[in-house]
Structures are given as C-alpha cells and as structure tokens.
Automatic annotation (TrEMBL):
PANTHER family: D-AMINO ACID OXIDASE, D-ASPARTATE OXIDASE. This is D-aspartate oxidase. PROSITE patterns: DAO. It is found in: Cytoplasm, Cytosol; Peroxisome matrix. D-dopa binds at residues 223, 278. Its EC number is 1.4.3.1. It comes from Jacana jacana (Wattled jacana). It catalyses: D-aspartate + O2 + H2O = oxaloacetate + H2O2 + NH4(+); D-glutamate + O2 + H2O = 2-oxoglutarate + H2O2 + NH4(+). GO terms for cellular component: cytosol; peroxisomal matrix. GO terms for molecular function: D-aspartate oxidase activity; FAD binding. Residues 1-19 form the signal peptide. It is an enzyme of class 1 (oxidoreductase). Keywords: Cytoplasm, FAD, Flavoprotein, Oxidoreductase, Peroxisome, Signal.
Amino acid sequence: MAAPKVAVVGAGVIGLSTALCITETCPSCSVTVLSDQFSPNTTSDVAAGMLIPHTYPGTPIHVQKQWFKETFTYLFAISNSAEASEAGIHLVSGWQVFKNSPKDELPFWSDVVLGFRVMSKAELQKFPQHQFGHAFTTLKCDCPPYLLWLEKRLKANGVQIYTRKVADLWDLHREYDVVVNCTGIGACQLVGDKKLFPVRGQVLKVHAPWVKNFIRDGDGLTYIYPGIHRVTLGGTREKENWSLAPDPGTTKDIFDRCCSLEPSLWGAQDIKVKVGLRPSRQHVRLQKEVLNQGGVKLPVVHNYGHGAGGFSVHRGTAKEAAFLVGECIAALQGSSSRAKL
Ligand code: FAD
C-alpha cells in the first residue's frame, strides 16, 4: 500500500493537535487538514486555555485523568523550553475559592497540577465572601498563538492545510484512506450527532497587567485568568444557546462579578468581548466508525465533544485518536496484502 492518506477535518485545538500526533506516530502517512475556519475564527480562539479539567460524566475518571496528565506533561515541557513564548504556554499560580466547602475535598487532578494545597486562613482573607479554597500552579495556553504554533509544526512536518467546508464525510472517500472528524460543534450538522449540544460562553479579554494570579470561583462561573498579554474574565454557561452575538447585559454582569472577586479590575482597560460555543456531550466521542456505501468502505475516527475542557485534555485525546488512526491503517494494510494473495 502507498503512503496512507489521512484527512483531519477541523482546525481548532483538537484538529491541529490530532494531526500533529498522527504525523508523530505515523511518519509515513500523508496528512491533510481541511477546515472551513482557522485561527482566529474558531471556538478554540475564544477559550481562556486554562489547564483545569472539566468533568465528563460519561467517561471514567481514570481515563480523564490520563488525558489531563498527558496534556499537562506535554505543555509543561513546552513552557520550560525556548518555544514557550511563541507557543503562548506559561505557568500560572492562583486560587480556586468556594462559598461553601466542596463535597470532595480533593479534585481528581490535584496531584497533576503543581503544589496543590488547601488555602490558609490568611490567604482566605483576600476573599471575604468565601470560606474555603485551593491554591495551586497550573498551565495556561494563550490560545491564538498556540494554534498558530501548532499550524507551524504541522507545516514543518509536511502537512497540507486547505480551507474547505466538508458537507459529508463520505465526500472524502475517493481522496483519502482515513478521515478524522475534529469538527467540534460542527459535528451537530456534519454527522447529525443528537447527543452534542452547544454551551454558550461569553468572556471579556481585558488589559490589566498587574493581575498575576488566577482566581476561579468554585462554581466555575466566575473566573479571572491572566495570560501573557490579556486577562480573560468569565463567564457564562448557557446550554443550547447558539447565539454568537455578545450580550451587553452579560458583559456588565461578568465585569461586576470579576471586580467583586478582584477589586483592582475596576481599573481594567480595553475591554474586548468574545463568544464561543462549547461542543458539549456527556463524554468525548473518541471512536472508530466504518462508513460503507455499496461495499466501498471509509474508516473514520471521531474526536469531538470536548465541552468546557478541550485545552485541558487535548493532547491526551489527540494521542488516543492517532492510535485509532494507526489501527485503521493496519487494518487497511492487512486487507490490501490479503487481496494480493
Ligand atoms: P473548535 O475550536 O470549534 O474547532 C472546530 C473546527 O472544525 C473549526 O476549525 C471549524 O471551522 C471546523 N469545522 C466544523 N465543521 C466543519 C465542516 N463541516 N467542514 C470543515 N470544517 C469544519 N477549555 C479548557 O480546557 N480551558 C479553558 O479555560 C477553556 N475556556 C473556555 C472559555 C470559553 C468562553 C469557551 C467557549 C470554551 C472554553 N474552553 C476551555 C473549551 C474549549 O474552547 C473547547 O473544548 C475547544 O476549543 C474545542 O476545540 P475543537 O477543536 O473541538 O473545536
């Protein structure tokens, strides 16, 4: 069999990182990325990019932990290299604070982030409305630079990148041996997945360079995440809301909530509003499927539905998707050598 041709559909953090993992695990493959939108116009560009996992109720915790650990280890190495500033990856320390003590004192990811501990009484004095908190150091991706860095790595590995809207995965069967579906919320339309739904998120990106620590309310709704150039203030979680239009009332509400956690933000300037649709599901769809029309087959690997936690687990799920692509190629090679006998 000639070099297997793999098409990855989607150029958010999931598509780009999956394409990169495929080039690393299958250097003989010819990999192409097809997408109707690229950075800065994807959901991944809107994200804060903090490595704090969101829990997928339908996925075993040990699997989620493994995805997070692989992602953390990968990005930690980048943060500790000369590539860090170009890739937009940096360490950030801060606090997750709770009005009432949480049921589980230790989240499953507490031994993956660095220096996780319960906050002292003295630290909690900064948050008079909160009773309990965790302090730790984690990683943050500045999303647009990280997406551009991934694209650059792909081009260096010989990957072709084209702008194309795919109306039906089957349309790719003449040109490619394996197709990988990383279309995020686009999978609602592309593959008619009824288990996938949008959770709208509105955030503000502000200039407040004096804010150095992250602060996250334990309810997950209000957060302050300092990046290299801008601070992300959030947020909202609106299930089944497809609107990408910023809402001025929500902007005011987010700003007020964040200022109540960190009063110095009243001095923030140059407020930009962004909206994105989290591609949400009970569990990430990470599986093989073989499309078949009239006896002609097209293996597909799905990797979408990362909801509120795509950055936190992207490398782990990309590695697993690349492994499934390897299985599809091995099966194709097995059937082509049997056909020659
Ligand atoms: P996308 O980035 O949407 O990429 C999908 C790609 O597929 C796009 O390029 C699109 O153009 C393409 N596509 C779709 N349909 C087609 C088609 N038919 N043909 C061709 N191309 C197609 N996660 C974290 O881990 N940490 C955070 O701090 C964080 N903060 C967030 C804050 C907000 C406000 C939001 C909205 C999300 C946040 N997330 C965070 C979640 C994270 O953004 C998502 O999980 C992640 O971006 C999903 O990536 P994706 O590549 O699957 O989707």
